Amino acid sequence: MRRVGVDLEGTFTDVCLIDSTTGAGRVWKVPSTPDDPSRAIAHGVVEGLRQAAKVTPAAVDYFGHGTTVATNALIQHRGADTGLITTEGFRDLLEIGRQRRPHRYDLQADKPPVLVPRARRHEVRERLRHDGRNDREGVAHDAWSISSPGVPPPVRGQGLLDPAQSVAIITPGAGGYGDPRERDRALVRRDLAEGTISPAVARDAYGLTDRP
User: Fold this and answer.
1) Do 89 and 132 have their domain in common?
2) Less CB within 10 Å around the terminal CB: N or C of the chain?
3) 17 contacts 25 by C-beta, under 8 angstroms
């Protein structure tokens, strides 16, 4: 059985032929063709088989193909301009990168440039259910509000809170926590009335059978 493997790189395309019956192997390379990488693959396989192994492509039983072109384009930021559509509240999640820092607790650590600038990241008001369906089962939020009895809230930016003020923070959510059927019935009816969940979700996910 003859097996051919191709590694397509930016400068050269490497081809390897292994005869699994005899254990014999041959390796050769041809110049890559960046304008159309498939030309280098076809040329490298056909010409290499003919010259090095004296066989035709029809004699090949297995063909495998790998490339670093896409990986290099990502690393070097040479790809096409790209946008990102994400759930509302998650626009900056990848850029924040809490889990993949060079030094987890170093706030001054340098981060690599983002693949998609913030101006090309857009949010969509939606939420996926546990089974992958989108039925407006609530909306993910990322917001904060200040309750100030008789005290105006501070402007955006840094500021001090008055002792009478309280802060409410709503963080991004997804499927929620716990069994949805244990949620307060009044809250489920409220979501249903406000249109954040559908009647089908109220019935199937939350077990709400009575609708006053």
Assistant:
1) no
2) C
3) yes
Domain count, the chain: 3
* Rounded Cα gap, residues 72 and 19, in angstroms: 31
Q: How far apart are CA 96 and CA 77, in angstroms?
A: 19
Residues 105 and 132 grouped into a single domain = no
pLDDT single digits (tens) 60-85? 888 898 888 778 888 888 877 888 88
CB 27 within 8 A of CB 44: no
What Cα–Cα distance (Å) separates residue 67 from each residue in 34, 44, 172, 203?
A: 12, 14, 37, 49
Residue 209 lies in a domain: no
The larger pLDDT score, comparing residue 71 to residue 101, is at 71
Q: How far apart are CA 137 and CA 102, in angstroms?
A: 36
Radius of gyration of the chain (CA): 29
Give strand pairing partners of 169.
Answer: 144
Decide if 81 contacts 87 (C-beta within 8 A): no
Residue 179 lies in a domain: yes
Q: What is the span of the domain harbouring residue 36?
A: 2-74
